[in-house]
Amino acid sequence: METSPTGADPRPSLPTDPSLRPLRAVVDLGAIVANWKTFQRLSGAAECAAVVKADAYGFGATPVAQALARAGARSFFTATIGEAMAVREALGPGPAIIVLNGPAPGEEGAFRGPGLVPCINSLGQAARWSQSRGGACVAQIDTGMNRLGLRPEEATEAAALLREEPPFLAMSHLACASDPANPMNEEQRARFIAAAAAFPQARRSLAASAGAQLGAAFHFDMIRPGVGLYGWDGMDCAATPLACAAVVTAPVLQRRKVRSGETCGYGATFLAPGDLDAAIIACGYADGFFRTGSGRAAVAFGGEALPVLGRISMDLLIVDASACPALAEGDRVEIIGPTIAAEAAAAAAGTIAYEIFTTCVGRAGKSYRHAAF
């Protein structure tokens, strides 16, 4: 455990400006567009929307949404109204920007000016939205996650409350789409079809990134890829090939010799079995390189994986650089990219690629390779 001699908390607050950290990400907007087009081909006749919540999973909602809009995306999903306002400012009028969380009490009027579309997730939201004469909306139906959404048996009452301007889209979300064999996928699909019948004029949407890979029966009128846009298919088994959308790097601060029998890092958890060359990297759990990856994670240089030695610190990690004698102070190693895929980094840290994206990519200072149209 890291301690301070004075007993004070040694952890500084994370700077709000990621450029103050040494972590850097080059985001490939062309790869994100290519991934969206992959899902567009999968969707057949259904519309392919784009989920850009959580600052486009850490990749930057403004440049990502602009690139996807230029490529032809016409519907965008955010989690909050604040996110939606930023996307509207980036895109201007035209595209539908749908807010998954829906309107909080008293927030209904804030949707009208910028033309934002709320998901209606409860009868209370339906009543308030109708009373405010808010306009276009989406009916979100919970078919098994017990997360956001109307219960299926509430759909008819919600339709009555929203009869002045019925929802143009009815949607739900699959709990187990990453496992194609899970019977809950078909159970949710059946519940969705039955509940969505309460909104006969509405288009329908059930599938996000993983659900879109379950086949045409799950596509309905719109699919909503999220994590798939950013390079991970979201499946438990290998499925759709996707392009790497960002390369995250950090600099080497020092090379040093570690002698046989010496230890590395807090807690002396790594004991060198022989002499080795170590490199000290300016990256740690303050950058989203999770401490749970201690002794299991790796970085890369020149396509060579360099294993982490001992515990990951807040701002530093130690790697075995013996296989890369050319690696020098000031060089940058790959944290996530073509050698260290996000799902591999996630597995080493005991988490999922979503969290790697939103933290490690999200906290990095970013530059962009722009898509060609």
Secondary structure topology:
Layout: E1 24-28, H1 29-43, E2 47-48, E3 50-51, H2 53-57, H3 61-71, E4 75-78, H4 81-91, E5 96-99, H5 108-112, E6 117-120, H6 123-131, E7 138-140, H7 155-161, E8 169-171, H8 184-196, E9 203-208, E10 222-224, E11 246-258, E12 263-264, E13 270-271, E14 276-281, E15 298-301, E16 304-307, E17 317-320, E18 332-336, H9 342-349, H10 353-363, E19 365-369
Parallel strand pairs: 1-19, 2-10, 3-4, 4-5, 5-6, 6-7, 7-8, 8-9, 9-10
Antiparallel strand pairs: 1-11, 11-14, 11-18, 12-13, 14-17, 15-16
What does this structure look like?
This protein is of the alpha/beta class and 373 residues long. The protein contains ten helices and 19 strands. It has helices at 29-43, 53-57, 61-71, 81-91, 108-112, 123-131, 155-161, 184-196, 342-349, 353-363, and strands at 24-28, 47-48, 50-51, 75-78, 96-99, 117-120, 138-140, 169-171, 203-208, 222-224, 246-258, 263-264, 270-271, 276-281, 298-301, 304-307, 317-320, 332-336, 365-369. The chain has a nine-stranded parallel β-sheet with strand order 2-10-9-8-7-6-5-4-3. Strands 1, 11, 14, 17, 18 and 19 form a six-stranded mixed β-sheet that branches. Helix 1 packs across helix 3, helix 3 (61-71) crosses helix 4 (81-91) and helix 9 packs across helix 10. The radius of gyration is 23 Å and the shape is elongated.
Concise summary:
The protein has 373 residues and is of the alpha/beta class. It has ten helices and 19 strands. Helices cover 25% and strands 22% of the residues.
